[in-house]
Specification:
128 residues, alpha+beta, three-stranded antiparallel sheet, two-stranded antiparallel ribbon, 5 helices, 5 strands, elongated
């Protein structure tokens, strides 16, 4: 892509994005992801706690009310949780997520990780 001078985005990303437009927009990159790629992103975060750049883009789109395929993001999250043996328990006023080894996982909306914020916004689509 560099040889052909195609604009790319790849730093801190799970995937490499290239486009034929002069300015590549993150919203177009998010829109291009399929279900399996979304699941791969969630799995990478849940397993390694890596905050891929894609999660910042998703979080920004959620905040702007511009995430077109929110249901697919939620389904891919649940598929990733299931594949890893993670479980979610919902109680009256709280939820608990346990990894495959039955250890609790803690997420905080005040975190600097966009993946945590996106996960919480996807699971609980309330206005914060």
């Amino acid at each position: 892509m560099e040889q052909e001078k195609i604009p790319t985005i790849w730093q801190n990303c799970c995937f490499c994005y290239g486009g034929i437009l002069e300015k590549l927009k993150y919203s177009d990159c998010v829109q291009a992801l399929d279900f399996q790629q979304k699941k791969t992103l969630w799995s990478g975060f849940l397993r390694d706690r890596f905050d891929y750049a894609e999660f910042e883009w998703v979080y920004q789109l959620i905040c702007q009310n511009r995430l077109n395929d929110r249901v697919e993001w939620e389904l891919s999250l649940h598929a990733a949780l299931q594949d890893q043996g993670d479980t979610v328990d919902f109680a009256e006023s709280e939820f608990k997520l346990y990894n495959g080894q039955k250890r609790p996982c803690y997420f905080n909306f005040d975190s600097h990780q966009y993946a945590q914020r996106a996960l919480l916004k996807i699971m609980f689509p309330l206005n914060f």
